Amino acid sequence: MQDNRILSVLSPAFSRLFLIPALACTAATLASGQVIGHTKISDTEGGFGGTLDDFDSLGRAVTTIGDLDGDGVGDLAISARLDDDGGENRGAIYIVFMNADGSVKSEQKISDTAGGFTGGLNNQDWFGNSLAPLGDLDGDGVMDLAVGALQSNDGAFNAGAVWILFLNSDGTVKDQQKISATEGGFTGILNETDRFGTSVLMIGDLDGDSVQDIAVGARNDDDGGVDRGAVYVLFLNIDGTVKAHQKISDWFGAFDGVLDDGDGLGWSLAGLGNYMGFGTYALAVGAGGDDDGGVDRGAVWILALAQTGHSLAHIKISSTEGGASPALQDGDNFGRGCGSIGDLNGDGVADLAVGSPNDNDGGGDRGAMWLLLLNQGGVESSHKISNTEGGFTGDLGDNDYFGYSCRWAGDLDGNGVNDMVVGASGDDDGGSDRGAVWILYLSDPGDLGPFTPFCFCDGTGNAPPCSNPGGPGRGCANSVNPGGGILTASGDAVVGADTVVLESAGLIPGQFMVFFQGDNAIDNGNGIIFGDGLRCAGGNVWRYYPPLTIDGAGMVDSSPHSISGEPGANSTVNPGDTKHYQGWYRDPNGPCGGTFNLTNGLAITWQ
Fold first, then answer.
1. What is the reported pLDDT for 295?
2. Which string of DSSP letters, residue by residue, matches 448-503?
3. Which of 93, 389, 484, 560 has the fewest Cβ atoms within 10 Å of its own Cβ atom?
4. What residues are paired with 179 via a beta bridge?
5. Do 587 and 597 contact (CB within 8 A), yes or no?
6. How many CB atoms lie within 10 A of CB 226?
């Protein structure tokens, strides 16, 4: 380990850096699937102009619906399943027309009293518990939408229903078709509290009749035991009625996986294309009450479907199965939310996002998202996004239930990586449980390896000290480079391997640079003002001696070295640790008068 003596070349302010106690921090930042930015839509943020009341639960379901209004920007459908239009907890959805910056341009509400919907809802229907785009089902050139109302009483108490909404381009309803135990040509037997409509998903034209088909979850179906759950594959006609169906449960559909009471198969649904190599559709099905490894940890089943809707094969992902399984805790309810995210890492295999809305990172039931990078046999690697992990710097509160819904949003920020929309139906912006939706901009897990940048002075985190923002993914602007300093790294992040090089550019030629390491990311990865920049790395801080001279191009690299540390030293790194790094550099003529500045932060996950 390099010498760590006090350096006379450092300014007094930088010396004080190492005397400040540990500040607000996050846990380990992810090595891939990192969140590099976010936008929130709620009663008080993001330009949303709809009227929300307490307990409306905006974000219980969310989906992309293409560019409905033809302005070149993709739009969203967001549910508020406990909205009281027309009566208590009848439910509603909002068609949300978006701006290119992720804010809301306008919205159209669809409920028992708004948006042209004339189907008729009853109290406690929970219309909007699930959402799925259907493409242009009726051939009028406008996207159509499936909406779950899992507590509809058609045929039996809380038997459930799904509504097919034929939309106009302004987000209003042109016509609707209900599918339930008593309507829409559906001949399946729904019993009391089956909650058909818990989830819904378009699965393409499974039977080859040129009409889109759907899958519908019924999480409390009792085939084989209490609340084991089921999924129905519905073959549709172009008018939204059901031509035929196939049930998949503990008794039906050739499914030979083992379900237990309370598993809740059908909590969520996501599509994985030809994931399992059978030349047909693969369906991910959440079972949020599964007990593998502990009580209510949750699971996801991936089913290869035949053209008839039967199960051809399955893979289970849980705390104990499916490869590099996520590290779940009791009560996480992994699988209550689920969404496809395309091929996130470019390996030719579809990947999966799974919500754990009752995860306790940072506080009770704040929620989390897991990004599962899949191979053909299960999970290649698992990456968590929560209040303390994954680079997400949004403010989650207790009982927000972040991850109750999630959907692929396409590449919103143009960096070549699919982004996500995630619901947090218990968010309290504006009032209790009014709900929210987060848009998460993701980095490329194939490019980052063990090195994850965080804490940028580009407006995505805390404001710069004197209106001196830097460029995207960089530190604050300095006297030479308005883009600010940037910190990256290369080499193998293996403890003791002596190959990691910290690399910085955009600095002040001829001045001094010092790299330093901290245990934590300050202020949930947003940093705090320090000199002319933002200090990002905190906790037990360790400086790398000697200071380095920045070259004429404004660049400087560290020497390859081991940072495993001396026994008992603050710098000690063990395999599996994530440490946070930053570069401090002199800037005597800096824009804010602080005489020094800092790069962005960089987290390294060590092996």
1. 97
2. HTTEEEE--SSSSSSPPTTS---STTS----SS-TT--EEEEES---TT----EEE
3. 560
4. 162
5. yes
6. 11
Half-sphere exposure of 312 (CA within 13 A, CB side): 16
pTM of the complete model: 0.71
DSSP state of 388: S
Angle CA(263)–CA(268)–CA(220) in degrees, nearest 5? Answer: 40
CA distance 44 to 47: 8
Helix, strand, or coil (residue 12): helix
Give the integer Cα–Cα distance in Å for 219 and 523. Answer: 39
On whether the CB atoms of residues 334 and 354 are closer than 8 A, the answer is yes
On average, the pLDDT of the chain sits at 87
Within 352-459, strands assigned E span 352-356, 368-375, 378-386, 402-410, 419-424, 436-442, 451-454
At position 373, the amino acid (one-letter code) is: L
Residue 348: partners with Cβ closer than 8 Å, 6 or more residues away:
none
Question: Among candidates 371, 206, 323, which has minimal Cα distance to 273?
Answer: 206
Strands 528-530 and 520-521: unpaired
Q: DSSP 3-state assignment of 110?
A: strand
How far apart, in whole angstroms, are the C-alpha atoms of residue 316 and residue 285?
Answer: 10
| Backbone CA torsion sign across 315, 259, 331, 148 | positive
Per-residue pLDDT tens for 351-363? 899 999 999 999 9
Closest CA to 489 of 601, 596, 344: 601
- Give the mean pLDDT of 309-322: 95
Cβ contact 158:193 at 8 Å: yes
Residue in this structure with the two tokens 């245990």, named with its chain if needed: 519
Contact between 270 and 284 under an 8 Å Cβ cutoff? The reply is yes
Total count of residues recorded for the chain: 607
* Tokens 């947090």 sit on residue: 424
Look at strands 451-454 and 601-605 and give their pairing.
antiparallel
Rounded CA Rg of the chain: 26
The pair of structure tokens assigned to 495 is: 């403890």
Smallest CA-to-CA distance from 197 within 175, 222, 180, 173 is with: 180
Residue 442 CA to residue 385 CA, distance in Å, equals 11
Q: Which of 212-221, 230-239, 310-319, 384-393 has the lowest mean pLDDT?
A: 384-393
Give the whole-angstrom CA distance, residue 402 versus residue 333: 12
Which one-letter DSSP state was computed for residue 118? Answer: -
The string of DSSP codes covering 14-26 is HHHHTTSPP-S--
Contacts of 8 (CB under 8 A, 6+ apart): none
- Helix (H), strand (E) counts: the chain: 2, 38
Task: Please write the tens of the pLDDT for every residue from 168-226.
Answer: 999 999 999 999 999 999 999 999 999 999 999 999 889 999 898 999 999 999 999 99
In which element (H, E) is residue 274 found?
none
For 38, 54, 135, 374, the CA distances from 351, given in Å and listed in that order, are 21, 35, 22, 5
DSSP string, 32-72: SS-EEEEEEEESSSTT--S---TT--EEEEEEE---TTSSS
Those residues whose C-beta lies under 8 Å from the C-beta of residue 38, and which sit 6 or more positions away, are 392, 393, 394, 438, 439, 440, 441, 460
